[in-house]
Amino acid sequence: MLSPVKVIVVGAGSRGETYSDFASIHPDRLQVVGIADPRLFARKKLQECHNVPEENVFDDWHCIAEREKFADAVFICTPDRLHKEPAVALARKGYHILLEKPMAVTLEDCTEIAETCIQTGVILAVCHVLQYDPFIRKIKVLIDSGAIGDVIHIQHFEPVGFYHFAHSFVRGNWRNEAESSFALLAKSCHDLDLINHWAGKRRCIKVSSFGSLNHFQKENKPPGAASRCLDCSVETDCAYSAKKIYLDRVKKGWVRWPVSVVCRNSIPDIESVTEALKTGPYGRCVYECDNDVCSNQVVNMEFEGGLTASFSMVAFTEEICLRKTSIQGSKGEVTYDGHEIKVFDFLTQISTKHTVDLSVPGSFSKGGHGIADYHLVDAFVSAVAVSYSEWKPTDDPVRSKGNPGESQAGV
Ligand SMILES: NC(=O)c1ccc[n+]([C@@H]2O[C@H](COP(=O)([O-])OP(=O)(O)OC[C@H]3O[C@@H](n4cnc5c(N)ncnc54)[C@H](O)[C@@H]3O)[C@@H](O)[C@H]2O)c1
Q1: 410 in Cβ contact with 122 (< 8 Å)
Q2: Which atom of ligand 1 has the smallest separation from the CA of 372?
Q3: Does domain 5-128+361-390 have CATH number 3.90.180.10?
Q4: Closest by alpha carbon to 363, among 49, 85, 152?
Q5: Residue minimizing CA distance to atom 3 of ligand 1
Q6: Which of 18, 37, 98, 265 best tests ligand 1's pocket when mutated (most atoms within 8 Å of CB)?
Q7: N or C: which end of the chain has fewer CB within 10 A?
Q8: Is the pTM of this model over 0.85?
Q9: Is residue 21 lining ligand 1, measured as CB closer than 6 Å?
Q10: Span 269-278, mean pLDDT?
Q11: Domain locations in the chain?
Q12: Could you give phi then psi for residue 206, rounded to 5 degrees?
């Protein structure tokens, strides 16, 4: 049996912690051997969870690039604008890379990452997790099997969710384009990736897009509202009140997302959440933030062969990220409502429902896109393990089975 793939987690925040859970479930396949994060709380939490030796725990990714290679792979889960530099530097060290989306925030940086990984021969996987969602995979299998004939049109909708948008894109990390990226890249790169995936080999040749920021602007601040929800006399009438989104949840014992994000350096409880809302970004009035990213956007695409696609993203929805898709083909139509897939056959006029296996182990089963996250890490760890099993032994200091930097094309 192969020894577990050794990974260093670069950015021990929400995503880094999630992917690392795979090592707790499958210690025979994945071992966390290093961590880099400037936040002591995040580092310590992951270090204790995975028994990482002190000498492999750092407060910045540069320390890993400066050291002799001591693992097989890295999970790069740093903020959006901090993907390119560690990806390029660590690919040059010969680490296989699981890189959070967006791959980078400029085309030039994406190209540099891809070229470096090809030159150094490391595996590069970008975390477009939805491609690993069992429903999404089933839709692709149905299309490829010819169930709806030639694909003619794809209609895809992303409901972001009213309080999710307020949390991430008005108060949170992705609110401001200069600090992270525009909403279509930060949020909907998953969806554009899916449309491209379903379009198969056909290239997109024309695109038009319009978007705007609505509602979360100073002129919509209700009369009498305060700058912070904890001081606000009209908070009870506000759907976006931080008290409702965070304090009410923690009072009911809910300490996971979005509450966990608010207390960056402590375990969330009523006291720590209250303090964070008094002083931190998540307690701000949604009408007084430095947000500038779009709350709604449409994209129209034309692909080779006349296939058209339309995509809409909107903040103001009840459902959170539960995408809806319908794909029209020459022989039938496939629809997906976030819960089940239905294929209508034009010839027989019969609808067939398709279910998928949604079971995944441990914390990955606890909602969000955990199921897709599990399959993504599973695929990456398998790819790294298989790549080693196929290489001939060399004097690689980490693996006796070879240094990927010299023999494998990036994927
Ligand atoms: N694939 C998905 O579906 C998905 C979902 C959410 C977020 N993301 C992406 O994942 C990335 C991380 O998001 P997150 O929600 O985990 O954010 P986060 O803020 O929880 O985690 C980022 C971590 O990077 C650390 N960091 C900052 N500078 C660093 C440095 N120099 N060296 C090492 N670590 C450093 C931060 O301290 C923080 O702990 C972002 O690019 C985000 O867009 C992807």
Answers
A1: yes
A2: 3
A3: no
A4: 49
A5: 129
A6: 37
A7: N
A8: yes
A9: no
A10: 97
A11: 5-128+361-390, 219-279
A12: -140, 145
